[in-house]
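Supplementary material to the annual report.
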Amino acid sequence: EDQVTQSPEALRLQEGESSSLNCSYTVSGLRGLFWYRQDPGKGPEFLFTLYSAGEEKEKERLKATLTKKESFLHITAPKPEDSATYLCAVQEIGGSQGNLIFGKGTKLSVKP
Amino acid sequence: SQTIHQWPATLVQPVGSPLSLECTVEGTSNPNLYWYRQAAGRGLQLLFYSVGIGQISSEVPQNLSASRPQDRQFILSSKKLLLSDSGFYLCAWSVTGRSYEQYFGPGTRLTVT
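Predicted assembly:
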């Protein structure tokens, strides 16, 4: 069973059409939850870290929220340049040092 | 500011040939360093991490090895490549003592033929 599950696998939006990406996790103790953006053929780019339920972080059109079981990445009025794969990762308390457990990602396409 | 470099960017190697991928970090001292592999349809998989020169921990048994000969240099190697070693290899770093945010390099696309 995957410890980090992202949904949907792919999402197509029209420019300006707001939506949310989901990341659910099943680790026993959460040290931190991380969101990354990955463009094709490139390394992931760090976006946010969330540490505790109720925490929220914002950056431009992106807003990340965290509950005890999942995180959402809200995209408000997206633009074509927001098209990318968004990766979620968790770090488990007591896990191997530095071991981030990644989900498989959500591929977002924003059409003009 | 910190930057991370990986080379080569792309590599095509025959089965059974050796491998050496290099990663260097600038602008920070004594970072934690990581090697990941990203295969199609799968999440990033941690292969090795290092908290200091000569200190390497392996997360999964495999055909690969890692070394850290200098503080900001991390090398991924293989003596004989397998077809299953194909993938996108990513190096990452984080601040010592805080294995929280990790920052990734541009990656190396390895194709084993």
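The first strand of chain B starts at residue 3 and ends at 7.
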